[in-house]
Amino acid sequence: MSGVPLSWEFSPVIVGVVLNHRHVMSPIEPGLIVLHSNRMEVLRDGLVQWLAGHPLDPLETDIITVQSNGIAQWLRSTLARTGADGGPGIAAALDTPMPSRLMWSLYRRVLGEAQVPESSPLDEQPLTWRLMRLLSNIAGRAVYAPLQRFLDDDADLRKRYQLAERLADLFDQYQVYRADWLADWEAGLDHLRGPGEPRALDADQLWQAALWRDILADVGPQAAALGRAGVHERFVEALRHWQASQGRPDLPRRIVVFGVSSLPRQSLEALIEAARWTQVLVCVHNPCEYHWADIVEGRSLLRSVKRHQQLKPGRPAELDEDSLHAQAHPLLASWGRQGRDYIALLEELEDESANQGSEPIPFMVAPAFAEVDETTMLGALQDDIRGLRSLADVKEAGRIAAAGDSSVHFHIAHSALREVEILHDQLLAAFNNDPELQPDDIIVMVPDIEQYAPYIEAVFGLYGPEDRRRIPYFIVDRGPGQVN
């Protein structure tokens, strides 16, 4: 990376955070700091150490954006635990917004609340009701024939509402991930950008471009400027051309991105531009300490950027397609594409932004990878991924799972209810075998929380407080319409 390096002193041992009003506050230097680790605990400890060594003023709020409410709750609870030195553990003056809410708040602070509404008319919820009205006027227009076929026989308007809801979500994601498509459609160019030359929209997909133009016409002349893509462009331009004579832009002095598995290009671009004036600390959960971007399918789509992670010793600098399987861990190669793209995009945008604007962006990359105990099957698997060991390397090691090793379990169940019952039984066994294990040490992740929530409440809510089988639980990330 080009720019002005920042200083970082990392120690894996954190003993607590103590607020002392007599402490002389250290300055918060602007810049981009990227902390990589294969362990969330190390990222957390590094974050705690950085916050303790570089405290904000007593009445300032630390902003830590997270991927989910579950991660926010885990981070708050671990920050609030009593330190090993007996000092009080305090988690106060913390704001943990989701990335989209953080981005919109930054847009409003820099561009002004008068220029950026509290919510955009092109956001998902207001757009749903706008589409309900617009979809009532598509009859007779040939371009909307695919939609009209779906809307036939819809006396109670249920189909129209379902379609409006899905389309609002689709266009909301386009504004974040494919703003270039929307800009082209607004200009009357019915094609899709991608690698190589733009590709024309298929005949049965032309309604997407037509509907987007109808939405903008319905909102009015300022529609594009009030959408996420338009506001983002104005935000980036404002920060790139902001002069010191204008004073400091209205940005928080520090922004932390903790453990987010992936951010869209738009959000990363905004954070990197903000790093000209504020301190941006990005804690990246990276499973591998070596450069691994080119072992995953789709590597040819990556732009040529600098490799900020070192190559594994003995590995060729360039790999051909036939050599990938011999240099990669199969799980990382199969499931690592999203993480690979996130890390590569972060590096690409930092390289681009360093050469734009009036001043280079101060930066620092801090690797904090930790070896994993290989005595268990899970630990060995995690360390193989960390060390980028291929399947041949793993076989050569000749490991044998210890008798009674229960670090990795696979259970086959005939229904979601039975899955939750098995989970409850396994947790009871874990608590029985380890007296130090506490409920807040455990997080259970599922692909669709709304599908499992009723079964979780039925199984975990079955036992009263006096029953030894009762396990305290809390369901996070549910939609507002599902919560009393």
Descriptive terms for the model:
single chain, 484 residues, alpha/beta, six-stranded parallel sheet, 18 helices, disordered N terminus
Could you explain the architecture of this structure?
- The chain has 484 residues and is of the alpha/beta class.
- The chain contains 18 helices and eight strands.
- Strands 3-2-6-7-1-8 form a six-stranded parallel sheet, with helices on both faces. Strands 4-5 form a two-stranded antiparallel ribbon.
- Helix 3 (99-111) packs across helix 10 (228-240) and helix 17 packs across helix 18.
- The protein is globular, with a radius of gyration of 25 Å.
- 26% of the residues are buried.
- Mean pLDDT is 81; it is low at 1-7, 9-25, 83-87 and 298-306.
Main sheet summary:
6 strands, parallel
**Total DSSP E strands:** 8
Helicity level: 40-55%
How would you sum up the global shape?
globular
Name the strands of the widest sheet in spatial order.
3-2-6-7-1-8
* Structural class by sheet pairing and helices: alpha/beta
H/E order of the elements?
Answer: EHEHEHHHHHEEHHHEHEHHHEHHHH
Taking pLDDT < 50 over at least 5 consecutive residues as the criterion, the unreliable ranges are: 1-7, 9-25, 83-87, 298-306
What distance lies between the first and last C-alpha atoms, to the nearest angstrom? 49 Å
Radius of gyration: 25 Å
Strand content: 5-15%
Number of helices: 18
- Mean pLDDT score, rounded? 81
